[in-house]
Design a protein that fits this description.
Helix content is 47%, strand content 23%. With 258 residues, it is α/β, with parallel strands linked by helices. It has a domain at 73-216: Glucose Oxidase, domain 1 (3-Layer(bba) Sandwich). The chain starts with a helix and ends with a helix. The model has no long low-confidence stretch (mean pLDDT 89).
Length: 258
């Protein structure tokens, strides 16, 4: 009986060892699969952004209205400090109006910039901030150094000559020389905000060109891009057709785009 028990024990131990070895063998495969999935997702994200960088913002706006039934464009007040075009992922920041003498009141705003990187778009909402500069040359320099795509400020901007010099694109409600220091407090980063009337969630795609700024929810971005590209192709094809026939009516009837 004793030898039999020993044999059973050895068999159980061997079976356990084989199981552990099998699990260990699977572990690298799972890690590799996750890495491959992550790489594929990064490539898809890069291709998506590249697509938005080459499509007209007006077409993106039209596509959003058709597919989502929403107007996701910012108003005519949101203008660039120089003619530009960019697309990237929203990094949101909110400032609330509050008089203070706290040296750390805006610390979170600066930290948010230092957590961003390539393809980030700094989307700042300054409460009642039409005449308050939400950012200027120092913040713009930090964003440029970290390869942000651009910034969109629901408020003012200053140091525009320097921002133009370094080529960092900013959209804002106006140009003002004021400061937020001692007048505002950091209210949050990477939170849902409403920028110039448009809801923006962290990671949404912000696309901008000389026509304005549009927010694309990331969940439907691929579908929106496809329709916007189709619209662009039709519209660009129409120019020569209109010039040749000298008729916009015939062109719209043929291409179905206006």
């Amino acid at each position: 009986m004793l030898p039999l028990l020993r044999l059973r024990g050895a068999f159980t131990l061997l079976l356990g060892l084989v199981t552990v070895l099998g699990l260990l063998a699977l572990y690298p495969a799972k890690i590799l699969a996750r890495q491959e999935l992550s790489t594929a997702q990064a490539k898809d994200d890069a291709a998506l952004l590249e697509g938005f960088r080459h499509v007209e913002v007006a077409s993106v706006s039209d596509a959003l209205e058709q597919i989502a039934g929403k107007k996701m464009y910012m108003t005519h007040r949101m203008r660039p400090i120089f003619s530009t075009r960019f697309a990237g992922y929203a990094l949101t920041v909110s400032l609330k109006k509050e008089a203070n003498h706290d040296p750390d009141a805006l610390k979170g705003m600066l930290h948010a910039i230092d957590t961003g990187g390539p393809n980030s778009v700094y989307v700042m909402v300054v409460e009642d901030g039409n005449d308050i500069a939400g950012m200027g040359g120092l913040m713009g320099t930090a964003m440029a150094a970290r390869n942000f795509s651009g910034a969109v400020i629901d408020g003012g901007v200053r140091d525009t000559a320097y921002l133009q010099k370094i080529g960092f694109p900013v959209y804002a409600l106006g140009v003002v020389p004021s400061t937020s220091v001692s007048h505002y407090r950091f209210a949050g980063a990477n939170i849902s905000v409403t920028c110039d009337g448009v809801p923006v969630n962290p990671g949404d795609i912000i696309t901008a060109d000389p026509d304005g700024v549009v927010v694309v929810p990331k969940t439907s971005a691929a579908q929106i891009l496809k329709l916007a590209q189709d619209m662009d192709f039709k519209e660009h094809s129409m120019y020569a057709f209109i010039e040749k026939l000298k008729s916009i009516e015939e062109a719209v009837a043929k291409f179905g785009r206006l």
